[in-house]
Write a structure and sequence with these properties.
Layout: E1 5-7, H1 13-23, H2 25-42, H3 46-63, H4 65-78, H5 82-89, H6 91-98, E2 107-111, E3 116-124, E4 131-139, E5 142-149, E6 156-159, E7 164-170, H7 183-193, H8 197-205, E8 212-218, E9 223-229, E10 232-236, E11 242-245, H9 252-255, H10 260-263, H11 266-275, H12 278-281, H13 286-292, E12 317-326, E13 331-336, E14 347-349
Parallel strand pairs: 1-4
Antiparallel strand pairs: 2-3, 2-11, 3-12, 4-5, 5-6, 6-7, 7-8, 8-9, 9-10, 12-13, 13-14
Helix pairs in contact: 1-4, 2-5, 3-4, 3-5, 4-5, 7-8
Pfam families: AAT
Organism: Nonomuraea turkmeniaca
Protein name: Peptidase C45
């Protein structure tokens, strides 16, 4: 089992978006429908969702006009309105606006130098077909490869400048319904523009946001977890070459406003699980690192999540992917599913 892939041939943002939208039309439309169902179950009306999508598009155009153009191109190719593709890109912001809650989410480990990285990516099981792997060239000679969702501009990824990012959602008391720049666009600009951790931090700090996320930026010998919230940006450096993050704030000034762990306290257990396995997570073997992540609830930390089908769709969580960055090669290693299913043969190199 592998995720679908797409390699863009266009350099112009609108043309690149239209090419992607045309080739991945069914998946993008299905992803929008899946999110529309999720928002409805969580309590949002279609009118609210449209208003949030339009505002996200406006804020994106102010902060990164070229990315707003790419969103418009995707919409044209997929037969959608630009605000609808903006909804897919702003799904984190819309969920924050609804104040959606539930158990689940991602765990990330980075060990320097190398780096040796791995993360689980958990999401709602009815959206398990949304992910794709996308290669694009935002400018000649600079290649970005990202694990993302159909219609979203980026998520976890690497670039050929030697930088990669991991991605975990957060919640903060400052999150609001006044939609700001989508955090997925911040990830994309970092992959497009940054070659150093400091440059990645500068991109994140420049974005006016309404929802929270942590982007862990990594190079061969440097890393930082960049905690983004409407209240500000916190930067967590490695300790003795180790940097691990789950779904709660670690920066002292931001941790006081923590919201995610109020509803999902397992984030603390998951982080402790990673800290207890630093030795196993420090090896060169990406399969061994993934297996070191393995832990199932309820008797242990639920790093590897499986959905409870008795729950409504907004409360069902699944580890959809396990991902390691290969920065020297500028590639991703992606396994479809959780650590409990990983073998050397199940990795998809992209």
């Amino acid at each position: 089992m592998t995720f679908p892939t797409f390699t863009s041939t266009q350099l112009d943002p609108r043309a690149r978006g239209k090419e992607l939208g045309t080739h991945r039309r069914k998946a993008i439309v299905a992803n929008l429908a899946g999110y529309s169902d999720l928002f409805a179950v969580a309590g949002a009306t279609p009118a609210q969702v449209r208003a949030w999508g339009e505002r996200a598009l406006d804020r994106s155009a102010d902060w990164a006009p070229q990315l707003a153009e790419e969103i418009a191109g995707i919409a044209a190719g997929a037969g959608l309105e630009p605000w609808q593709v903006a909804v897919v890109n702003a799904r984190t912001e819309i969920l924050a606006a609804i104040d959606a809650t539930g158990e689940g989410e991602c765990s990330t480990s980075v060990v320097l130098p190398g780096p040796r990285t791995v993360q689980t990516w958990d999401w709602h099981d009815h959206l398990r077909d949304a992910p794709m792997l996308w290669e694009l060239e935002p400018r000649p000679g600079h290649v970005v490869r990202t694990f993302t969702e159909a219609g979203a501009l980026a998520k976890i990824g690497v670039n050929t400048a030697g930088l990669g990012i991991h991605f975990n959602i957060l919640r903060h008391e400052s999150d609001s319904a006044e939609l700001g720049v989508p955090v997925h666009l911040i990830a994309r600009r970092i992959l497009e523009e940054a070659a150093t951790v400091e440059e990645a931090i500068a991109v994140a700090m420049s974005a006016p946001v309404s929802a929270s996320t942590v982007i862990t930026a990594v190079t061969s010998d440097d890393a930082a977890s960049i905690e983004i919230s409407p209240a500000g940006v916190g930067v967590i450096p490695p300790e003795q070459g180790v940097l691990q993050h789950c779904n709660h704030f670690l920066a002292p000034g931001l941790a006081e406003g923590e919201r995610h762990a109020t509803d999902r306290p397992s984030t603390y257990d998951r982080l402790q699980h990673l800290r207890d396995r630093v030795e196993e997570l420090s090896g060169d073997d990406h399969t061994a690192r993934a297996l070191a992540m393995l832990s199932h609830g309820p008797d242990a930390a639920p790093v590897c999540a499986h959905p409870d089908l008795t729950q409504p769709i907004n409360q069902r969580w699944e580890t959809v992917a396990t991902i390691a960055l290969d920065l020297p090669a500028g590639r991703l290693r992606v396994h479809q599913g959780g650590p409990c299913q990983v073998t050397e043969e199940t990795w998809q190199v992209f």
